[in-house]
Design a protein that fits this description.
232 residues; alpha+beta; 10-stranded antiparallel sheet; 6 helices; globular
């Protein structure tokens, strides 16, 4: 089963060393949560085949500096990196990020795509909590193709809109707008944001209902464009 765990935020310029540290924390955290999918890593390049990658500080720093040396790189966009982790047959983790920039319109992001056997237990909420702790996003979600299709078809969701899935993360200002009677389990994180446990796998209808309520309450308002801050 394919699961997508994502976080998004606005402009937050950071030195390459800070980005490398966030990447290191992410990969270390994934190795603890889903070791089946993070035994060996490779880097995906825009051109050419993937190459083996050592998931440690100097390699991460070097990869990010290489990305910033590309002719078309701009700090308006941010610095991208894409890694694929493999291990136990049937398991895979793809981690891609675009961070450290000061864009006016394109959100910064970190996405973790987890592939696991259908019957496997995957700590997807813990992975979202890890992403929230390390990257301090404005909002985030745990979704799958069925959830995203339902949100698009039944609630008018478009790519780039703030969103929640089976589990959602909202930064503190967004969490303050969550209706008190919304039927979700709320967990405050050290950042001040909240993790929302919304629905079990397969219950896309509950996700759509929660999404609509949150959007009506203003908790899923987009950042104003041009963007001038990382979170609402």
């Amino acid at each position: 089963m394919r699961r997508v765990v994502r976080g998004f935020w606005g402009p937050r310029p950071e030195p390459v060393e800070a980005l490398a540290d966030r990447w290191q924390q992410t990969l270390d955290g994934l190795a603890g949560l889903v070791p089946e999918a993070a035994d060996a890593w490779s880097q995906v390049h825009g051109n050419g085949p993937a190459t083996a990658f050592a998931a440690e500080g100097s390699a991460l720093l070097g990869a990010l500096r290489t990305a910033q040396s590309a002719a078309d790189w701009s700090d308006l966009t941010g610095t991208g990196l894409r890694l694929v982790g493999t291990g136990t047959p049937g398991w895979e983790a793809e981690v891609s990020g675009l961070a450290g920039g000061r864009p006016e319109f394109l959100l910064q992001s970190l996405a973790i795509v987890l592939h696991a056997p259908e019957e496997a237990v995957v700590p997807e909420e813990d992975v979202l909590a890890l992403l929230a702790r390390v990257w301090e996003p404005d909002f985030g979600d745990v979704s799958d193709d069925d959830v995203l299709d339902a949100l698009e078809d039944e609630a008018g969701f478009s790519a780039g809109d703030p969103v929640v899935g089976r589990t959602g993360y909202l930064s503190s200002a967004r969490a303050a707008l969550v209706p008190e009677d919304l039927e979700v389990v709320r967990q405050e994180l050290p950042s001040g944001g909240e993790l929302l446990s919304i629905a079990a796998p397969g219950d896309s209808a509950a996700v759509v209902r929660a999404y609509v309520r949150l959007r009506e309450a203003g908790a899923l308002d987009p950042l104003p464009r041009p963007m001038d801050r990382a979170v609402l």
